[in-house]
Structures are given as structure tokens and as C-alpha cells.
Amino acid sequence: MTWPAAIHAFRAYMLLERSLSTNTIEAYLNDVQRFVQYLDMVKPEHGPLGVGQTEVEQFIFWVNGLGLEGSSQARLISGLRAFYKFLMVEDLIDDDPTEMLESPRLRRKIPEVLSYREIQSMLDVIDLSQPNGPRNRAIIEVLYACGLRVSELVNMRMTNLFLDIGFVKVLGKNDKERLVPIGPEAVKYLRIYLENVRTLAPKIKKDDENIAFLNRRGGRLSRVMVFLIVKELAEMAGVKKNISPHTFRHSFATHLVEGGADLKAVQDMLGHESIITTEIYTHLDSEYLKETIYMFHPRMKF
Q: Which among 18, 173, 241, 264 is annotated as catalytic?
């Protein structure tokens, strides 16, 4: 089997049998292609079925020498593992050359989080008398109230809004649905936008009649547009942090956990597959840590 044939079959397997997203498929294919490029340089005679553990380990060693970050190396290993698992499933190989590979230990980064005061300052600079003011206010309110991903926000459907009972049905990753509570302030500004602004929108595009948030041309907002809205409001409010729409999701989760919310409940609202992902929000504010050590450590008392 040649590399092009193996990669073509791998793509079909991920699409048809695994139902993976387009982004995931492309990422895995890029990882395999990088491995093929390496083999072309050092061992061009090796086809996909002739690779052993030694070749894979040498590739990872070579990648490490390029200075790639641990996260990039881990993703490469993940892509290769998926490829050779596919070959095993198809009974094309008897031994998995990636089985003994160890992923690099990754240092978990604490995401940037906005304080409640910073979020309020961004809301305060929105001019509701401007054409896009009510929409932008509703966007920020919903992002923070529900902890949505930006893709979930731009694809939010009118028929999935149950505002009378305070819930929103969200279509998350891999088309998994979840119910998320929505607070009264977010409901208030969402209703203002939907009832007084969206109804005046120009002819709505054919596939977007059920989409909640629209641009001035009657189509759904792009992810980039939401990013620009957030950046502009942060600048107007004097918020110096490097933020994006996802920052409101981090802030939503962090504020809940710091307020004493159950971690499993936060996991369900965020739509995380694993609670390990949610546990990053259990970090404590550095000022609180400093205050604690000054109060209780015997060497800090004067």
C-alpha cells in the first residue's frame, strides 16, 4: 500500500466511520503528512505498512530537535496514533508502532479571565441607541450568562430558546445537545434584540431564518465578527487584557467555581467530555493566595 492510498483510506475512515469534524480530520492528515515528509528525507523506501517503532521514535526525536512546543508534539503523536489504529482496525498491520510512545508532559495554562467589574464595564460602553447596540449587548450577556463557545453562539437557533423557563438548548461539539440555564439579565437584553431589532432586519438569507444573531445583511454572524465586537468593546472599556469571545466562557466557569458551584454541574453546562478539562477552573486567584499565606503562615507574621 502506498502512502497516498493509505492517507485517502484514512480520510474516508475518519469521515464515514468516526464522523469526526472537518478540522480534526485535517489536523490528523497534516500530522501524517509531516511524518511522510520526514521519511522521504531519511528512509524514502518505507511505506505505511513497513514503519516500525524505531522510525516513529526517531521522527519524534527529530521533531523535538526542531523546538516544537510540547502541545504540538503531543498533537503529532495523537495524529500518528489515530492513523496506525486505523491500519490495525483494517487488519493491514499486526503491531502498532505508536503503542509505546509517550506524549510530552504538558503544562496546563490558566486561561485569561475577566473580573465581573471588567465585564460590567464592557457592557456599560455599549450604546443601545446605535443600530447594533442591542444586538451586541445581547451577545455579551449571552456569552457570559451561558458560557457558550463562539461557534455555539453564532449558530444559536430561535427554536432552541426557551426564555420563559430560563433555558437555552445548545448544539455543541460533535452535534451534542445540552440545556444551559440563562439568567434574567441575558433574557432581558436578548428579548429586546429579538423583538425590537431583529424583526426589522432586511431580507434574511434562506438558511438563516432560524438563526438568532444576524448581521446587517440578514445573515448569521461570523466567528471573526464576534471576535471584532469583543475586541472593540474591550478597548472602549479600557480593558487591557488580551481577550476573545472564549474569555467569557472562561470567566463564566471561573466565577461559578469560585462562588462554590459543583464542578460536575459546571462540566455539564460547558459541555466538556471529561471533568478533567473543567478542573482547570479550580485555580485560585493569586491575590487570594498571597492574602492566605500572609494570614496563616507563621513566618509571615510580624
A: 173
Cell of 98: 505508536
Domain ranges of the chain: 3-89, 116-287
pLDDT band, very low/low/confident/very high, at 118 (cuts 50, 70, 90) = very high
- Domain 116-287, CATH number (from 1.10.443.10, 3.30.450.20, 3.50.50.60, 3.40.250.10): 1.10.443.10
Query: Is 189 annotated in the active site?
Result: no
Quickly tell me which residue has 460536575 as its cell.
Answer: 264
CA atoms within 13 A on the CB side of 254: 17
Look up the pTM and report it: 0.60
- Enumerate residues 6+ apart whose C-beta is below 8 A from 166: 181, 182, 183, 184, 187
Catalytic residue from among 34, 191, 223, 272: 272
Beta-carbon-side half-sphere exposure of residue 293 (alpha carbons within 13 Å): 7
Query: Which one from 81, 135, 137, 149 is the annotated catalytic residue?
Result: 149
Cβ neighbours of residue 216 under 8 Å, at least 6 residues apart? 131, 132, 201, 202
Catalytic residue among 46, 205, 246, 283: 246
Superfamily of domain 3-89: Tyrosine recombinase, N-terminal domain (1.10.150.130)
Question: Is residue 231 annotated as a catalytic residue, yes or no?
Answer: no
173 in catalytic set: yes
Q: Give Cβ neighbours of residue 53 (< 8 Å, ≥ 6 apart).
A: 97, 98, 99, 100
Grid cell of 271 as nine digits: 459541555
Residue 149 a catalytic site member: yes
Q: Residue 294's pLDDT band (boundaries 50, 70, 90)? A: low
